[in-house]
UniProtKB/TrEMBL annotation, chains A, B:
This is Competence/damage-inducible protein A. It comes from Peteryoungia ipomoeae. Residues 9-172 form the MoaB/Mog domain. Signal peptide: none annotated. CDD domains: cinA.
Amino acid sequence: MSDTISTAAMLAIGDELLSGRTKDKNIGHLADLLTVAGIDLKEVRIVSDEEDAIVEALNALRARYTYVFTSGGIGPTHDDITADAVSRAFGVPCLHDAAAMKLLADMYAGRGLDFTEARQRMARMPQGASHIPNPVSTAPGFIIGNVHVMAGVPQVFQAMMAHVIATLPAGRRVLSRSIACPFGEGDIGTPLAAIQKAHPDTSIGSYPHFDGLRFSTELIVRARDEAAVNAAAAAIEAMIEAIRAQKDAASGLDLGTGEVA
Amino acid sequence: MSDTISTAAMLAIGDELLSGRTKDKNIGHLADLLTVAGIDLKEVRIVSDEEDAIVEALNALRARYTYVFTSGGIGPTHDDITADAVSRAFGVPCLHDAAAMKLLADMYAGRGLDFTEARQRMARMPQGASHIPNPVSTAPGFIIGNVHVMAGVPQVFQAMMAHVIATLPAGRRVLSRSIACPFGEGDIGTPLAAIQKAHPDTSIGSYPHFDGLRFSTELIVRARDEAAVNAAAAAIEAMIEAIRAQKDAASGLDLGTGEVA
């Protein structure tokens, strides 16, 4: 486990995400995996299948974060241009990789299918890239520099990420504690801000939920240090009890904590 | 209806989206709405609750696209900093808006609740901004320049967007035709690329689906001109029939089109 904090960005590529035809499932999956691995996902971008847009976003992200993960655009059709765009971003040629050609040729031969020109497109990658294995449909993803290029089909993206995540040095995981709060943000905002100020080594998030009638809140304390999480969580629980007592008093009730649902 | 093509970007704000705690639902909703309205969503970014990150992304996006839509960070707690960040991006003070203060004061008075300092935070917006009504929970979103700032809670985001979308001039809608293709991208890649080349006034997308055993494809033709969509779709249907006939011949079968499931 490393004490250095690694950061990450995701670049999801595809017109279908921007037209609404496909609702992305890869961002949330990656976010979950990275959180468990102790790697901080700092930014996500979604761009269309346009080479300039991909190159610009990729160069911005790869310069800024420890890792970049991309999804989409590595299939065999004309609109799959991610390998070309990544090659251009790194200033290297995009070539049919010999090892990928063999993997795919063998797979299609075994299935009695032609290894068409379109299928051969899936062996193209930037010169010098290494493979990300694809146990679902063979055609590999690839890694160049700090950029990990994966398919957009969720089953394939997930299989590729399962491999990739195991190769990355795990960071010191961010611990989190979730506290259900029956009160809306309007009730807790001011005392919660004071608690955040008193616990600067934690990050306290407030996530409102609306059930159609009223707001409640989920409060999440996050920190890499367990004692810090515990101290902030205790302060939040005390705050909730204080608000509850105040509300009971205001409504003329004194049911005692045990009788309040 | 305008013949000018308007573009848009979305900026989703919130640590919870990057930690995986919350799976975003607003991007897909916005994408659907804009597609129907004939406005091209070109880019989406997700950033954390950090003022610098919000300001930088907002300034990049608002300079480049006709409209920017944001979600998240306009609640009453300390981690809701979108109003401050948007104000800084526009170089104007972030103030308690008088009309928003009155709306909220009246609403809380009607519910017998204190109009706390935290709740008053929800009336803060950049000087000169106009309101986006919030029929769900009163606290308004706001518009400044080409930037539309909305809540992250999906019910509220959707209610605000329902108002906003009706105020935007509808563009000439992009028409689309979806064609189910029983073959994988490896079979169709080369002829499909030729069809795209022959129909440059359309955008043909190929979306693979993997059912756990084999890939099929959904092909989508998009264009603002109906005749162009029809011509490309006809070419694609002919391509599918040609591949089917070829496969039937290769497997020694000649079932006739009517008997092929």
